[in-house]
Specification:
The chain is α/β, with parallel strands linked by helices. It has helices spanning 14-25, 65-73, 105-110, 116-123, 138-146, 148-163, 172-175, 177-186, 189-203, 221-231, 274-280, 286-292, 337-340, 369-384, 409-422, 438-456, and strands spanning 6-10, 29-33, 45-48, 51-54, 60-62, 80-82, 90-94, 97-100, 212-216, 235-236, 239-247, 249-256, 259-265, 267-270, 300-308, 320-322, 333-335, 349-357, 392-398, 426-428. It is built from 16 helices and 20 strands. α1 (14-25) packs parallel to α16, α5 packs antiparallel against α6 and α11 runs antiparallel to α12 (286-292). It binds flavin-adenine dinucleotide. Flavin-adenine dinucleotide is lined by residues 10-16, 33-36, 41-43, 56-60, 240-241, 271-273, 276, 280, 300, 302, 398, 401-402, 430-431, 436-438, 441.
Length: 465
């Protein structure tokens, strides 16, 4: 039985859907409003010519019990697949060649990816004093602690792969809070990594570099589809929220299937990207709405290219490769989609999912299809060797892909906290808040629901969505 408190969740990406799921479980009367005609937001899976194509995230990291338990509760654990052993091999481009990313201290010492000088430089790390700056760029943070080469050949490509971002502009404490905290708490990343591993074990958490990579046999949208199925007719598609006002209750102004409507709720959770959030909040909190609109989401183009296996010279024995900026290439990196999970490509075929643009080269994401196909083909050909043309290409453009937690972002994070304190019943859950990954978004949703139940009371717990 619902406890009668009505909550609107705006946005049906992974954040909004998981928030709504737990709210229903806690007994709230939930309505989810989604502008698009489908759920999932950034998570989109397609099938074409026997290939499974994830046009947004291709995988997620199993970083918490919260995420694991949610998947089990949804009954889709049997559909979950972990990346196979080969996907632990990751490559970084150096001097135009694919160089294996060393995954252990011994491999690091033997690796050709870093010079002896760079390796020796790491020995100094435990003796470098922690910064007293509250905010600094990830590049400055890494340069000071680990040196230039580590920044160029480890952090720069990694950040391009995760954030489509640039370490010179990302904020170390906002974008990588755990890394920054290691230094603050233990005085050193190396010492902190050793001690942190023990503490995480106690909390049942796994660090991102150790967390298992997973997807679903039927692609990433199995997750969001399962959540939407549980929520049933509580999810309204083609339902764009235009604005919210506070008139005792929250009045939500909507456009549902082209018809303007207003509905009243005791609480609202905003799980939309910050440009949409800015216009939704323009009446309620005009100054914050203006500031939120400044958050940068650079564009990314995802280019899926399918080939006959015989037309690829190199064995695709890994997750894929990432490209450091100093290598001056046109693409950010490429995932070997069909090597990581089973049944992504028909027998005898293989596929690359290549990322273009981001904060490094936003203009590249806006090239026309023909030119985009050309730059991807040329870089793949140089790096893995191609003997023939792709059998098909699927391009998806994300004009605003991933929020960049740039310098100053801690203030936006504080602003979301302040708005929640100022307006009783207003909440935020999304990839703009405590991390951009799927695991982070699910944890953020979980925390938001805990906050809601603390502030608004607990519903009847035995309600099943
Ligand atoms: C190309 C790409 C690759 C990625 N790869 C990975 C990866 O490999 N692993 C990983 O963990 N993460 C990855 N991410 C990040 C991750 O996918 C996202 O951060 C996460 O899915 C965001 O979920 P969300 O629910 O917060 O936001 P979204 O998915 O953006 O959902 C927001 C929803 O709000 C809706 N909406 C917007 N405005 C309104 C409105 N006015 N009214 C109603 N609804 C509205 C939108 O239509 C959308 O459905 C990737 C992202 C991109 C773009």
């Amino acid at each position: 039985m619902a406890n009668g408190k009505r909550i609107a969740v705006i946005g049906a990406g992974i954040s909004g859907l998981s928030t709504a799921y737990w709210l229903v479980k806690s007994g709230f009367d939930v309505s989810v409003f989604e502008r698009a005609s489908r759920v999932g937001g950034t998570i989109i899976t397609e099938r074409q010519n026997g290939f499974l194509i994830d046009l947004g995230p291709n995988s997620a990291l199993e970083t918490s019990n919260v995420l694991r338990d949610l998947i089990r509760e949804l009954g889709i654990e049997g559909d979950k697949v972990y990346g196979n052993a080969i996907s632990n091999n990751r490559y970084i481009v150096k001097g135009g060649q694919l160089c294996a990313l060393p995954m252990s201290p011994i491999k690091f010492l033997k690796s050709g990816l870093f010079s002896t000088r760079a390796k020796l430089r790491l020995l100094r790390e435990p003796f470098i004093k922690p910064t007293n700056q509250r905010d600094l760029s990830l590049a400055d943070f890494v340069r000071r602690r680990l040196g230039d080469e580590f920044l160029d050949y480890a952090i720069n490509p990694f950040v391009a792969g995760v954030y489509a971002g640039d370490p010179e502009s990302l904020s170390a404490p906002a974008a990588f809070p755990k890394l920054y905290a290691l230094e603050q708490k233990h005085g050193s990343l190396i010492k902190g990594a050793i001690k942190g591993a023990r503490e995480r074990k106690k909390r049942g958490e796994v660090s991102k570099d150790r967390a298992r990579l997973f997807s679903f046999k039927s692609g990433m949208d199995a997750f969001t589809n399962a959540l939407a199925e549980r929520l049933g007719d509580r999810v309204f598609l083609n339902a764009e929220v235009k604005q919210i006002r506070e008139e005792g209750l929250f009045s939500v102004e909507l456009d549902i299937d082209g018809k303007a409507e207003q509905r009243q709720f005791e609480a609202v959770v905003l799980s939309v990207p910050t440009d949409a959030m800015s216009s939704i909040l323009k009446d309620l909190a005009p100054e914050e709405a203006r500031r939120i609109s400044e958050i940068n989401y650079p564009p990314v183009a995802v280019v899926f290219m399918a080939f006959r296996e015989e037309d690829i010279a190199r064995e695709l024995d890994g997750f894929g490769f990432l490209i450091p900026k100093v290598e001056n290439r046109e693409i950010l990196g490429s995932i070997w989609s069909s090597s990581i999970f089973p049944d992504r490509a028909p027998e005898g075929f293989a596929a690359f999912t290549t990322f273009v643009g981001g904060a490094r080269q936003p203009q590249n994401a806006e090239l026309d299809d023909e030119r985009l196909g050309e730059i991807v083909y040329n870089d793949l050909n140089d790096l893995v060797g191609l003997r023939g043309q792709p059998i098909f290409v699927r391009i998806k453009r994300w004009p605003r892909a991933i929020p960049q937690y740039t310098m100053g972002y801690l203030e936006y994070q504080a602003m979301f906290d302040n708005l929640e304190n100022e307006f009783h019943g207003l909440f935020f859950a999304g990839n703009f808040r405590r991390g951009i990954g799927i695991g982070d978004s699910v944890l953020c949703a979980h925390e938001t629901v805990q906050k809601i139940t603390e502030r608004m009371g607990d519903g009847t717990r035995d309600t099943q969505p």
